[in-house]
Design goal:
Blueprint lengths: L1 E3 L4 E3 L29 E3 L5 E3 L8 E6 L4 H8 L2 H11 L3 E6 L11 H10 L6 E4 L4 H5 L4 E2 L1 E5 L5 E5 L18 H10 L14 E2 L6
Parallel strand pairs: 5-6, 6-7
Antiparallel strand pairs: 1-2, 3-4, 5-9, 8-11, 9-10
Amino acid sequence: MVLLTRRGAVLGAASLPLVPAFLSRPASAAPAIGAAAPDFALPDQDGTTRRLSEFRGRVVVLEWTNHDCPYVRKHYNSTNMQNLQRDAAARNIVWLSIASSPRGEQGHVTGPEAKALTASRNAAPAAVLLDHRSQAARAYAATTTPGMYVIDAQGRLRYMGAIDSIRSTRVEDVARAEPFLRDAMVAVQEGRQIERAVTPPYGCVIKYVDA
């Protein structure tokens, strides 16, 4: 079942990603696994413009996030997301959190608000990027939060989809879920094939600014 509200949309456990009709859909299909990951230029929480291409030579994780989304809260309240971020940093993997919610919509944050959230949750991304015009979300056809992507050191997309295998908001499910994202980022870092390169994402719908 899909539950829609004016300020937020939550995908039910068995539903497919859906973007409300009153908001623009992704401009193109998601990039293919093995293809070049789309570059982007977005301001971070301090106002510094960051490009994906500046991290060429390192594995990169992209995390689409919305702090008000119950699926995102599941992974932060359990500290699963923070643990993944720190595991990535220990492996020299760049973790970029991307906030694409437009102004006036659930999950919208300014730079100072993003910094405060990072501190309050003891999170550890390399940067929080503000995608208020939906450029990066469109380029990756991102539909849900949390939405996860892994890019290899050569700039190729290697994984996209869910953070794990249990489509719920229950913290207690984290420990027993198959950790899709962690398995993918470790495999890429170690030069191994990913068992599941694409998995169905689950979470809250990402809203787009009209093009």
